[in-house]
Each structure stands twice: as C-alpha cells, then as structure tokens.
Specification:
2 domains; elongated; 13 helices; mainly alpha; 0% strand
Length: 249
Amino acid sequence: MPSPRPGKKTPAGPSARLRNKAARVERLLAAAYPDARCTLDFTTPFQCLVATTLSAQTTDQKVNQVTPTLFRVFPDPEALSRANLAEIAAIIRPLGLAGRKSRHLRDSAIGILQRFQGKVPPRLEDLVTLPGVGRKTANCVLLNAFGKPGLMCDTHFCRLTRRLGFHHLDDPEKIEALFRQLLPPAAWGGFSHRLIAHGRALCQARKPACELCPLRCLCVMAKSTGPKGPPRGKTTVPPEQTKARRLAT
C-alpha cells in the first residue's frame, strides 16, 4: 500500500469543541421541545412525499387544509400520474406556485410508476431523482415516512445553526454535511424537528425572542446583541409563543 504523499494532510473534521456544543444544543432542545414532530398530515409514504413537496414556501397548516381533497381525488401515484395539471392546480392553488408544484407532483408520480414499481423509494439517492425533490424533501420523507435517519436543513435549520455560531454557510447541502459529522444518525431526526420548532416558536427570522431562548447561553448572536447567559429563574412565555411551541415541528 503506497505511503501518503509527504506534506499532504487529510482534511480535518469538526473540532471537539463544535461537537460538544452540538451535543449541548441537542440536550437543551430535547428538554424544551420533547414532543416536536412533523406537523404535516399523511398516512402513507406517497402522501408524505406529496405533502412535503407542497410545503415549499408555505406553512404546514395551509398544506393540511388542501391535502384531504387532493388525497381523495388522487389517492395513489397511478391516479396522480393520469391527472390533468389544471385539476391539480385548482386544488392546491391556495398554497402558491400551483403551476410548478402541479408539474412536480404529476411528474414524480410518473417517475415512481416507471422506475420504482409504483412505490416511493426508501433511499435518498433515489428520492432526489424525482422532479421537485431536493435533499430537504428527501430527508423529510426518509425520516417521517420510513423512520430512517434524516437531517431536514430547511430555512429554520440553516438560520438557527448560523446564529448559534456553527458555521457561516449559505448552502444547505454543506450545512447538512457538517451536522452529519457533528451528531450521530440516531439524533438527526429529533434535532431537526426540535430546531425547526424553536425557529418557529422563538428564534424567528425578524424578531427572535432572545430573552426567552433556552439556547441563549450558547448563541453567538444572542451574546452579541442582548444580555449574556441563560435566563434566571422561571421564564414566563407569552401565550402565543407557548402555543407555537406546542404546535411547531
């Protein structure tokens, strides 16, 4: 076996400090959001794929308002593959991007029938070959429909991990690759759901509630813009944020 070339170094992985910080964030999130889960309504992997595709640039609550009708009219990939695009668009129009999402849904159904024997594939490398399915959607399906490890690097995940000081990245794939190294696979799903829940409930894009944040003692942004250290005593959370915590994923 040839010896490594002199002077050539193997790229270093994340530091021990960053790994320890990720473990601490995971523990604090688990305490704050023990029941965080996917809030999309579905009963099959196909319905999970459809609902997740529809959730782009809208809320899970709005998706749940249209999917009962969509699933009743198009209950499986075969039915959706034969659909008229205008008929799909009419059902999902309240979600926005109806034309593009309609094409993605129908073309994905056709792909599932032609290449995967009519069943949603349980592998990330296969899921991302379907129209409109990126890594975030694929990981969501793997995690929530098949019970496999998955990191859902959506806008909340990327924003919060940047604020916490884990990285200065904008590319979700690079952020996903980082956290694949920072956390064990068994922790990916719970960490994703809880971080997204926290982004919806407290660490919002425009008005983060840093004074109420259970991660404040670890957050680079909070330390640079507000009081340092964790909240003292018992914090009173406004009712609307309490509700958001309960419903968020």
